[in-house]
Amino acid sequence: MNVAVIGTGYVGLTTGTALAYLGHRVTCVDKDTAKLELLCRGRSTVHEQGLEELMALSGRNLSFARQTQEAVKDADVILVAVGTPQKSNGEANTQNVEAAAREVAEGLEKGRLYCLAVKSTVPVGTERQVSQVVRRVLDARGVEDKTTVMVVSNPEFLREGRALHCTFYPDRIVVGAEQPEDADMLRRLYQRILEQSFDPPPFLPRPGGYNLPTLVSTDPTSAEMIKYASNAFLSLKISFINEIAGLCEKVGADVTEVARGVGLDPRIGPGFLAAGLGWGGSCFPKDTAALLAIAEEHAYTMPIAAASREVNFRQRYRVVEKLQETLKGVRGRLIGVLGLAFKPATDDVRESPALDVVRILVERGARVRVHDPVAMDNGRRALEGLEVEFFRDPYTLASGAEALVLATEWPQYRHLDLARLAGMMRTPVLLDGRNLIDPEEARRAGWTYMGTGRWV
Ligand code: UDX
Fold it and tell me: Is the Cβ atom of 343 under 6 angstroms away from ligand 1?
């Protein structure tokens, strides 16, 4: 099929490249000329494992364009994957989606059939809004009755750092359409994924025991809600275990053991039960805020979703408070923060708990040094104006420091030489905000170790 993807962020670029690899002819559109130039040279604009290799493997099936009209003319399917930034009231701003829909409609040809799928995370009811925008433009062009556009909702569930994995081996594909038959174009688009009838890229083998994904064909409003409900539930799971972690610290239990025991119940499952600094990134914070904004618009309260956010943001303060207690105040202390990205395997620092820890520490008068294996540039931009020192090497960062906070569970931090690191410190205090390090090992190496929700 001919596919146009509007927007080359994480979602657009990953999906577009994967579809090109699967044999579709894909044109990805972006307005940013600097980005386009990089993309045309085969370089990815986002740090995502395997993406550049896959772009190379996709060959001529993948191309890039600046003009939406040009890209959509011959397309069968158009995927809208533009950003929906957060408004001040928490709502997702759909301006970009509407603008994209207008431009798409300007480029559609008379007498053709198109499927326009909204992949961006949008407030419930956006599919209706997009349909109207398209209809208005086609009407103004005098081609409304001669062009068929099926507008559907097709939320994505990509995880940064595993985006290609999530695209090739999804748990489910959700399509929300007014008429069930409107989902057929997307069924065709994703057929090779649904049937797993493709040769996996050499660096991304099909996981053993992977079951064919379900196509959830539903109405557009429910599809939009599935996305919000999924993210709200996952973030709630993390907040729940973080709340339990706080109590574990009080009563002397180990939350990693509790999570293991709890997660073995298949009704609960082991995923998303890692206690620590909590969730950040481009989705959970924004989507939970948007969900609450939708509820408010309907004069409905959602105390569980609200509490999940509250517990999440409390984690960032708790870490600093623990440090204050142990060091008897952080004012004037030299503290190192390991990790800036909101999670490992990405350079994304959006809403990263690590950044807030840095901000709170600086606010409370600490001298702060930071390190991240890949997110230094983004961290520098996000922390601009704040007195923070950036270090390329964790050992140099530790030199003379009075405490370290492990804020992102990068695998390379697990392999640090703990004894050497402790030897560099003025006082070897380690606050493991992600429960990455083995407490016993840390203590043997000379550290005063504090995890999250672990008394050992
Ligand atoms: C998430 C959803 O998983 C994905 O389906 C959706 O499409 C976009 O949002 P992502 O933001 O990339 O994906 O990251 P994810 O791996 O889900 O982690 C989100 C945050 O939760 C990270 O800050 C991570 O550190 C934190 N987390 C995750 C925990 O604190 N504990 C856990 O057990 C799992």
Answer: yes
Residue 20 lies in a domain: yes
Structural domain range at position 325: 315-450
Is the pLDDT at 140 greater than 70? The verdict is yes
CA distances from 83 to 115, 117, 309, 310, 351 (A): 20, 14, 22, 25, 15
Q: Which of 196, 415, 186, 425 is nearest to 327 (CA)?
A: 425
* Nearest-CA residue for atom 13 of ligand 1: 159
- What pLDDT, in 10s, does the model give residues 33-50? 999 999 999 999 988 999
Last residue of a domain, one of 162, 187, 217: 217
Selected catalytic residue, list 115, 166, 248, 283: 283
By alpha-carbon position, which residue is closest to atom 19 of ligand 1?
279
Q: What pLDDT score does 456 carry? A: 57
Q: Is 410 in the pocket of ligand 1 (CB under 6 A)?
A: no
Which CATH number do you get for residue 423?
A: 3.40.50.720
Closest of 403, 389, 390, 399 to residue 442, by C-alpha = 403
Q: Distance between CA atoms of 46 and 33, rounded to whole angstroms? A: 15
Predicted confidence at residue 236, as pLDDT, reads 98
pLDDT 10s digits, 62-89: 999 999 999 999 999 999 999 999 899 9
Looking at 197, 217, 237, the residue that finishes a domain is: 217
**279 and 312 Cβ atoms separated by less than 8 Å:** yes
18 within a domain of the structure (yes/no): yes
Q: Which of 84, 164, 343, 409 to mutate to test the pocket of ligand 1 (most atoms within 8 A of CB)?
A: 343
User: Number of structural domains, the chain?
Assistant: 2
Q: Tell me: the pLDDT tens digits for 228-287?
A: 999 999 999 999 999 999 999 999 999 999 999 999 999 999 999 999 999 999 999 999
Mean pLDDT across the chain: 96
283 lines ligand 1 (CB under 6 A): yes
Q: 0.90 cut: is pTM over it?
A: yes
Nearest protein Cα to ligand 1, atom 26: 279
Does residue 287's CB lie within 6 angstroms of at least one atom of ligand 1? no
| pLDDT surpassing 70 at residue 387 | yes
Q: What is the DSSP string of 116-131?
A: EEE-S---TTHHHHHH
- Please give the Cα distance from 70 to 67 (Å, whole number): 5
**192 and 326: one domain?**
no
What local confidence, expressed as pLDDT, does residue 455 receive?
A: 72
Is position 40 annotated as part of the catalytic site? no
- Tell whether 182 and 319 lie within a shared domain: no
